[in-house]
Amino acid sequence: MQSIINNSNVSINSGFYFSRPLNEKILLVQVLVGIFLYVNFIMIFTFLKKEVFREDTRYILFAQTLFNDSLLMLLTDLAVVWSYYSYLIPMIPCCILCTLMNWLNDCTPLTLVAMCLERYVAICMPLRHADISNSRNRKIGLLIIWTISSLMPLLTLIGFIAVNPSSTMQSSVVCSIEIMLTFTWQSQLRAVHLQLYFICMFVIIVFTYIKIMMAARAASSDNKKSTYKSLRTVLLHACQLFLCLVQFLTQYIEMVVMQIDFMLFINVRYSNFIVFVIAPRCLSPLIYGIRDEKFFLVLKDHALFGLPKIISGAFHVNQHGLKCVKTRPLQMLHT
């Protein structure tokens, strides 16, 4: 199932716990998560401060990705720390936490697909872009994203409650998504869902990439630059989506490795967490926070707490003052 929690914690059913040599790795994760949350906070603040961003579909989807990934990373990091110290929590809060993380985790790839489709409409159907990307359609699109991404997590939760006795819900556990997969058929159902998930999104990404590439070749010289930029954006989204979707498959590799060597299993899980959880979510700030010129100008001002404007204003004042100093002797000569 979801490997976000599993990437840094071990199976409660197997009775394994983190060994002390992982302490430095856990510290590294805290640093990476702290930097990630700070950058995302600045970008969310930038989005909220400018009305022009709140009325553009691609920036709205970008802001949803930032919010979704930030909350997911915060909850995941909390689960990692709890698992590392073998902290017991009641089963009901654990189930809610795992369901929420599953929900947020499934939401990110769908949002990335929606962002690619938005670029496809903007480039390949520019005359209809304003009509398609209106406020009503944006709300419907966001509702569809959150609804589809909630289906499997809610089914997993309902299945867990249905197949386990009520006494199980009153116990305390080291929280892990693995405890919600009581029977093999639950894991198989999740695997089928993820495979369909992967195929559908892969087809959509390839379709949008090919269409935008065709539009780029047919575009005039004035529009080629923006079209090719959108093409690179879709390609980056494809890489980001690929990493997110591969994350769904890492649990099967981890299960095989755990049967071979436990310490190797821990190292593989830790590497999967860095590469397939943290890394793809660091691409969103790169794609829209740095590559987008309009957003980057506002972001730079907020990230530096308005320092560029202060320096620029002081520079102009100094220039004006120097000019007055230079002209004063000339005025004295004329008098």
TrEMBL record:
Membrane-traversing stretches: 26-48, 87-105, 140-163, 194-213, 234-253, 273-290
Cellular component aspect of the GO annotation: membrane
Residues covered by the G-protein coupled receptors family 1 profile domain: 39-288
Entry's localization field: Membrane
Repeat found in the keyword field: no
A GO MF label: G protein-coupled receptor activity
The keyword Cell membrane is assigned to this record: no
Superkingdom of origin organism: Eukaryota
Pfam families linked to this entry: 7tm_1
Main localization category: membrane
Keywords (A to Z) from UniProt: Membrane, Transmembrane, Transmembrane helix
CDD domains assigned: 7tm_classA_rhodopsin-like
Protein name: Odorant receptor 131-2-like
Lineage, top ranks: Eukaryota, Metazoa, Chordata, Craniata, Vertebrata
